[in-house]
Structure prediction request, 932 residues.
Amino acid sequence: MNDFEAPILTVKRLRKQFGNGCGKCHELDESKLEKNYCPMCGTIYACRDISFDVYKGEILGVVGESGSGKSTMMQCLYFDQPVTSGEVFLQGYKDGSDNLFKQSAQQQRYIRNHWLGKVYQNPIYGLKMNFSSIGNIAEKLIAAGNRDVESMINRAKELLTHVNIPLFRMKEPPHNFSGGMQQRVQIAKALSNNPPILLLDEITTGLDLSVQANVLDLIKQIQRELNISMIVVSHDLAVIRMLADRTIVMLNGRIVETGLTDQILEDPQHPYTQQLVYSLL
Amino acid sequence: MKIKYNYAYFDEGSKREIRRAMLKAVAIPGYQVPFASREMPIGRGWGTGGLQLTLSLIGKDDTLKVIDQGSDESVNAVNIKNLIAKTTGVDLTDDTESASLIQSRHRIPEIPLNSDQILILQVPIPEPLRTVEASEFTTKRLHAENEYSGAWLMLFEQIIKYGQMSTGADHPVVVADRYVMAPSPIPRFDNPKMNQSKALILLGAGREKKVYAIPPYTRVVSLAFNDYPFQVEGFKDKTCRLCGAEGVYMDEIIDDNSETASYQCNDASFCLMRLNGGN
Amino acid sequence: MGYVAVKGGTLAIDESIKRLKFERLKNQTVLNVKDIEGGMRGLIDTVMSESSLYNRESAAIAIKQAEGSVEEAVFLLRAYRSTLPRKHYSNTIDTQNMHVERRISSCFKDIQGGQILGAAYDYTHRLIDFSLDDEYLDDVKAWLTEFEARQGGVEQSDICLNQLPKVTEYLRQEGLISSYEDDDNEPVDITKKNLEFPTVRSERLQMLSRGQTGAVTSLGYAALRGYGDLHPTVGELRVGNVEVYIDNPLGDGNYHDCFYLGQLQITEVETYVARSTNNNTDNSQLQLEIGYGACFGQNETKSIAMSMLDLCLETDNPKYPTQDEEFVLFHIDSVESTGFISHLKLPHYVTFKSKLDSVRKTRDKEGAGNED
Prediction:
């Protein structure tokens, strides 16, 4: 398989549980669990054997209701949370066969700074609210080793312009901005080191419709120009429809359906997907 | 009930423990080594860290100099000198060149030190990342993971706000290309003296219970950006009103009568030496 | 020019020290250390507790030297403690064997062994007694004689004051308090090893026990008022004497082969809160958890506050500052907090000059009209 066809990111059997498990549930036997939860010991199986690939330049959509495990999965991929078990491989990192979850904390920071970018649903997690917006972007550049103020300022200005934040506000802390603007600062920050992979976690949830449309347009534009691979998580099928080339559907911690977005929308197979699609206005 | 104190106040066991911590610090330049800091007869914040290091190192053949803000006669310096003299009987001196041990608060002497001397600096806050991160648990991990973007970010924000870095004293440094360290509140003017120093430099924080070190001939670089280099305080065109020296750190004295400022060497023994015909 | 030397500093300090002595002596009052030891029990208890050194005579001397300043007296004793060689650790003290002088429980109206009020200010009316200005030794002796004679007439109970069962044991038998496994791990000695985060319980309890009374009390109060998750009840408060033993250093570890060193008076508090546990079923259960407070001498407020902070710091999920162990443990030590604050009185002109330099530079730049 040549490089062109190999996926840029491969996730294998990612598992994340909260709680210690017990005799009854650790086999992950469907019949013993209520949704993703064990009534005997209270353990929650947030992610159960999640496996998927992301190819270069594509947008992978992840759709599911709250509690499906999609945000937990994103947290694991960005090392915000440790996984219970599983593997993830990055083409181009070492020789593509080292499990990122087993790398040292230093290495994981390195990967976060050079290979990944993440935009959180709540900007508080992605930004330092008391530092200037330009400082927030510079933080990522500094973490990647940049020691040149002018070049960082220029790059930050470039990014802020790209996301339509007026430059006269660049010294203000994001604390002062509207929700939509905060998201755009996050996007600028996430893109600052030209990461090959961008993780977007419910980034438009809670924003006004017009603002949502704005942010989504921006994402599409970025993707066209920079050919970045993205994983977009949303519970809103309309967002997925607009952005994603391929989609996976999650329910109770499992992937229940995957395929081309168009196909899934036109001909959903799994009953849950059907429910989702038919309720889409 | 009469108490008899051991030589240099501490019992030998304590001295040994503190020396071990110092050895570890020398082995890992710039790394903060925790130690069980004892209460001393002078207040926390008044140099108990430096004092414990000095007392653990000092011996009958040593000659001790103690300065505070560059002065041998300052309150803090006299206090510490008296305590050490009372419990050791060692020779005291104001002359930098004849001292084997120099304990100092907030300054490095103007005269370059040699390899037979040890400089001990008093440190209030040993953690350079404390202003970005309040938690000790987190800062320890950041040091372990070589994650110092917070320190640079702080300087970046200053540049954005003021057009230049605006740290006063205690401008952070990178030691041996690995640990970022707080050099203690010495003026920026003194940071370069730490680089490739012939003398061993030890830094003690009593209240925070940390000791760290810069072994001789270690590379010490003040944090700066490529296009915003590190700048020391400027004393351009200023000369000392007493001895005429230039290019040294000076105190600003406001004259009662003329209400103008004049300047005077901060390093008092350096100034005296010049006045008495030396250099 | 002749030899120039500046000696002003030393002279000024010597004079200051003499002046301080003058302040202490100017009224020509020669305080008798025995008076302090005999009549200032409360002050001595506070000072012993904060300096973590149990010795009434030394505490009394320190109080005399410090003219009654608690901050100074604790400082003197801690510095003294630093010079003492540490040769032994005592055996574990089981407070069940305390020779109880006072023992109450808020949890139950009546407890096995009874509510023993003992000597406490709780039941007095805080009305200043100006007649104390006129107290004479003869009257004191007469009162004491009468008091001691009374004891014979009061109904003797058959309760053994050094075998009073703990209220906690009773609750434990009912299964309301979790049982625990014996933990024989050596406690950490924080005077020999720096605190490391996350801390273990022995570190926290030591820091709290020798914490400044005001600081510990305030934080306990904050926890109670809303900056904490607590609704506590005092299960048992004891004040009394415990015996201290050390193993024979040359012996073979035989339990009976130990030396008796003496007695300490301590205050001990066990406080309960109800906390939920997840117990193998869908429903949470409530369980009683114990917060522990103990101090040298009779220090009831501090011990209760300590027990509450012990509970606050046991949480995994800090929401309030009283649950943040770095916030609490780093700021309650008297010598450290007073030392650092008072260090601000030291000259800082070099650092200040440095700061002035920066301030001036940024203003110059602005004056030059260069805003991005």
